[in-house]
Design a protein that fits this description.
Elements: H1 19-28, H2 33-56, H3 59-90, H4 94-98, H5 101-115, H6 137-140, H7 144-159, H8 161-186, H9 195-206, H10 219-249
Helix pairs in contact: 1-2, 1-3, 2-3, 3-5, 7-10, 8-9, 8-10
């Protein structure tokens, strides 16, 4: 029998599991048959709900079975709402889960359907954010290696945040200066009607997107545009190199799919007995 982790407090081994313990094991863990079955069923429900929203956006399909699709969308929303409430009930600190990444995604996955009747337009189409919940597949199918790589990437991005911030600051300053210069050189007659409009051109040029809706006409403006293009090619590789350097130094320890019942965070070492984030017993 798999070990049941308490949802409230540590208990003695002979203490019978409460309904919250069992509920926590099924909903949050994927190392039991019941837990894995629940998560797999949840994945299929998420895929089906996203498909319903996509089909509803097709005019010909919406005209034929639009009412059926809307009923299905409400059914999925109610099911996901019940699941969200159960997740809040099972954990020791509900607000910790509510403010976690998955907690926020779970909430955003059900809100659009409830607020759509009060807002004009197609607000319920935002329910496609449910697709983010598919990230749980890494945990459900025990893709621990992917969890390790994802953790290494996350740590590398966080470790390089200062360098990336400096780099982005240089880019923003360059865009402001080049945009202002282009507004002065070309002027409204050539489409550079304001400094913000010219900054938009500078961003499009520096990122090598080149929409072509605004283009310099004077020789000086074209020369400045050439400089911007060269700068763009030079700057594209900078953040990649920064993150790559951090990735090379990141330690890649094997991780488990264990979820902490206290802080609801993942990414623990295989031999961990306590959560490395909050210290709670696993």
């Amino acid at each position: 029998m798999p070990r049941i982790r308490s949802a409230e407090s540590p208990r003695k081994p002979d203490h019978p599991p409460t309904w919250r313990d069992v509920c926590y094991e099924i909903i949050f863990e994927a190392d039991t048959p019941a837990g894995k079955a629940f998560d797999v069923a949840l994945l299929f429900a998420i895929l089906a709900s996203v498909l319903v929203v996509m089909l509803e956006s097709v005019a010909s399909i919406e005209a034929r079975i639009g009412q059926t699709l809307r009923i299905a969308e409400w059914v999925f929303t109610i099911l996901f709402t019940l699941e969200y409430i159960l997740r809040l009930i099972c954990v020791r600190r509900p607000w910790k889960y509510a403010l976690s990444f998955y907690g926020i995604v779970d909430l955003l996955a059900i809100l659009p359907t409830y607020i759509a009747p009060f807002l004009p337009g197609q607000a319920h189409r935002l329910t496609v954010i449910r697709a983010l919940r598919l990230l749980r597949a890494f945990r459900i199918f025990k893709l621990a290696q992917m969890l390790t790589e994802a953790s290494a990437l996350r740590h590398a991005i966080w470790a390089s945040r200062a360098k990336v911030t400096v780099f982005l600051s240089v880019v923003v300053i360059s865009v402001v200066i080049m945009g202002s210069a282009m507004h002065l050189i070309e002027g409204p007659d050539n489409g550079f009607t304001s400094i913000p409009q010219s900054m938009y051109w500078a961003i499009v040029t520096m990122t090598t997107v080149g929409y072509g809706d605004i283009a310099p006409q004077t020789e000086v403006g074209k020369a400045l545009a050439a400089i911007m293009m060269i700068m763009g090619y030079s700057m594209i590789i900078v953040p990649t190199g920064i993150v790559s350097a951090e990735l090379a130094q990141a330690a890649r320890k094997p991780l488990t799919t264990q979820v902490c019942p206290n802080c609801v965070r993942e990414g623990h070492d295989i031999d961990a007995k306590h959560c490395k984030f909050c210290g709670a017993e696993l």
